[in-house]
């Protein structure tokens, strides 16, 4: 016989069941499971739990931050609306103040124009009075000159002037 066929270990095939090998494989597998359970699975499970807790905390924090951001956004919107209302109120108040100021300026300009008109009328009256006085004096001089030519009498110039001035004074005011 052949040397290979005579050996009991080498004669077994791949599909043959060897109870000793199976027993030792099972014992080794159980020991490996025990060692891994004690030293590897515990830390791995703890690490997975910690990672799950970290992720859950991050999600919760993100939710809180989102809620806070939405709250701040709502506050910003309210503040913006309030600022717009205040700006509109200020613009309205400024328009009212400008209207009052315009009315004051208009009133002041009217008073100044009335004063200027009154002063102009007064000055015109004074000028008219002065012109009438000058005209009377001129008429008196002309009348004296005319009377002197016409009368050529012995009356002196002072007496003639007095006569003409008395005559002018006696004239009605509308004719002078």
Describe the overall structure:
The chain contains 3 helices and no strands. With 176 residues, it is an all-alpha fold. The chain has one domain (12-175). Helix 2 crosses helix 3 (157-170). The chain is rod-shaped and about 185 Å long. Residues 1-7 have low confidence and may be disordered.
Please specify the SSE layout and strand pairing.
Blueprint: H1 3-6, H2 19-151, H3 157-170
Short description:
The protein has helices at 3-6, 19-151, 157-170. With 176 residues, the protein is mostly helical.
Keywords:
single chain; 176 residues; mainly alpha; 86% helix; rod-shaped; disordered N terminus
Strand content: under 5%
Find the count of extended strands (DSSP E, 2+ residues): 0
Q: DSSP helix count?
A: 3
Helix percent band: over 70%
Structural class assignment: mainly alpha
Please state the CA-atom Rg, rounded to the nearest Å.
66 Å
Main beta sheet? none
pLDDT averaged residue by residue:
85
Distance between the termini: 181 Å
């Amino acid at each position: 016989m052949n040397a290979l066929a005579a050996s009991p270990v080498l004669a077994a095939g791949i599909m043959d069941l060897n109870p000793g090998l199976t027993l030792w494989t099972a014992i080794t597998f159980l020991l490996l499971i025990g060692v891994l359970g004690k030293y590897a699975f515990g830390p791995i499970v703890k690490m997975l739990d910690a990672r799950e807790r970290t992720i859950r905390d991050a999600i919760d924090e993100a939710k809180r931050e989102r809620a806070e951001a939405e709250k701040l956004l709502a506050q910003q919107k309210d503040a913006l609306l309030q600022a717009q209302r205040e700006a509109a109120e200020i613009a309205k108040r400024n328009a009212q103040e400008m209207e009052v100021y315009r009315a004051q300026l208009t009133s002041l300009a009217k008073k100044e124009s009335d004063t200027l008109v009154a002063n102009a009328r007064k000055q015109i009256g004074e000028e008219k009075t002065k012109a009438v006085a000058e005209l009377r004096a001129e008429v008196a001089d002309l009348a004296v000159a005319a009377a002197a030519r016409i009368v050529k009498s012995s009356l002196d110039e002072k007496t003639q002037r007095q006569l003409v001035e008395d005559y002018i004074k006696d004239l009605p005011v509308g004719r002078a």
